[in-house]
Amino acid sequence: MKKYKVILHPDAETDINSSFEWGSRAWGRENAKAWVRQIRQTIKNRLTSMPLGCPLAPENEELDIPVRQLIVGRYRILFIVEKGTVTILHLRGPYVPQLYSSEEAED
User: Fold this and answer.
1) Domain containing 22 — which CATH number?
2) Alpha-carbon span 18 to 97, nearest angstrom
3) Is the pLDDT of residue 106 over 60?
4) How many domains does the structure of the chain reveal?
């Protein structure tokens, strides 16, 4: 089975760190650390071996490159696959700041 290299875009790291900080306040630091370990372990287990088995994300329609998603609990991990590399773009969930298009910002 082919192994993929997984890298986190700086925005994805920011998303994880923001969620960790929120989790530290809401659930306590140890629980937030456990959550980060779970996210990172799931990324490693799923995306190093079968990233193309994940469905396309709704955001895929807005971009010129296929964006896929991996659901982990209440979070979506958005990523792209290029050759042998998976790049994690963002982590989206209830406690991560969301991206809005310029059209939505004007409404």
Assistant:
1) 3.30.2310.20
2) 8
3) no
4) 1
The answer as to whether 104 is a domain residue is no
Side-chain-facing half-sphere of 4: CA atoms under 13 Å: 23
The verdict on residue 14 lying in a domain is: yes
Q: Please state, in angstroms and rounded to a whole number, the distance separating the CA atoms of residues 57 and 25.
A: 30
pLDDT at residue 28, rounded to an integer: 93
Beta bridge partners of 91: 77
Quick check: is 100 in a domain? no
Q: Is 1 helix (H, G, I), strand (E, B) or coil?
A: coil
Summarize pLDDT for 22-76 with one digit per residue, the tens: 889 989 999 999 999 999 999 999 999 999 999 999 888 888 889 999 999 889 9
Beta-sheet strands, E only, within 9-99? 68-72, 75-82, 85-92
Residue-number span of the structural domain to which 41 is assigned:
5-94
pTM: 0.82
